[in-house]
């Protein structure tokens, strides 16, 4: 006989995992999802392939006002546990570059399929098109009001409504209001893993051009983080994996009113002197060549004029014989340290993750239970914990979902 009735509010990654764990532990579980079906965001993860975890798990890949809060959950249900959990459900996991783990099927939909199959097998009740408008505590336990439906009573509630990132996939911040009603504080959310906007005159002419290089975020002149890989110029700023990875630290400091720059190194594998030597050799190879033409074959042609102008070269077509040592130093300098001012991040609709959320100081890290409202639990992106790109955010959803599901269903 089932004793505990648990409502999981939000049928995303964290909610589905929590519901399975709680049902396996003997609870009667219902998942309330506002969309017509559960797991919509999961289908979009990893460009439709679902980067479900990362074998190189480290707390340094996570962020939040008190990131150490996440350590216990990430240890109790770690990346190996997540892979075993999914292998058991039928997902053969493959490890790709930088430790990223994907289903061998290459389909995020297969991850959703096995989760739903297991939920059904365990008798988890999915109630879709069910937007939870309020949760309160009364004599019969928790009272849940769902839009256009009768209210229901349950013994325990797990809030897994996600954050605010990419509202077209479901989460829109409504969970924060549910948490606030119990007295939980919300650390102001801001978009993370998102493209950066720049203040620069040349963006239109470079839109769509890519470089392989290194990007560094500098705040008040100090380098805070570097990432390398493919950097894409857009008509508003920069995109690409290194930029997305740096966006959290940029967004965090912009919100504090700090001056944030991004510095690109187009030749991270060469020292300044090596690059200067290379440019010198190429320039004096054919002294009659126009200076701008001497860069053809070295860098993407779309960058040549912009870089030369940015380096303060006024006559772009001068024959190479007239190029001075100072010109050479200026252009080498620009290629090694091309500094641009970051004016902001793109909006929620473009963001992959939410930084900020329910303040962890009122959540027990061992159980994910509210310290204010016993019987209320949290898991996933709704909590003020976010991860880097690479499978870390889903791992947080699995780990915290596991702990919340297990502790909510324990007698
Ligand atoms: C495009 C994209 C790609 C991504 N790729 C990856 C990746 O490859 N690897 C990775 O680790 N992370 C990735 N992420 C991040 C990851 O998907 C999220 O961190 C993770 O899904 C969060 O899980 P969650 O269950 O906490 O929230 P969500 O998955 O957002 O689920 C929350 C659910 O709650 C529902 N809900 C909200 N409010 C209510 C309410 N009031 N009543 C009822 N239901 C409600 C929502 O509709 C939603 O279904 C990606 C994100 C995006 C947007």
From TrEMBL:
Residues 5-405 form the RsdA/BaiN/AoA(So)-like Rossmann fold-like domain. Its cofactor is FAD. The keyword Lipid biosynthesis does not apply. It holds the Pfam family HI0933_like_1st. Keywords: FAD, Flavoprotein. Signal peptide: none annotated. InterPro entries: BaiN-like, BaiN-like_dom_sf, FAD/NAD-bd_sf, RsdA/BaiN/AoA(So)-like_dom, RsdA/BaiN/AoA(So)_Rossmann. Residues 191-353 form the RsdA/BaiN/AoA(So)-like insert domain. This is Flavoprotein, HI0933 family. The lineage of its organism: Bacteria, Bacillati, Bacillota, Clostridia, Lutisporales.
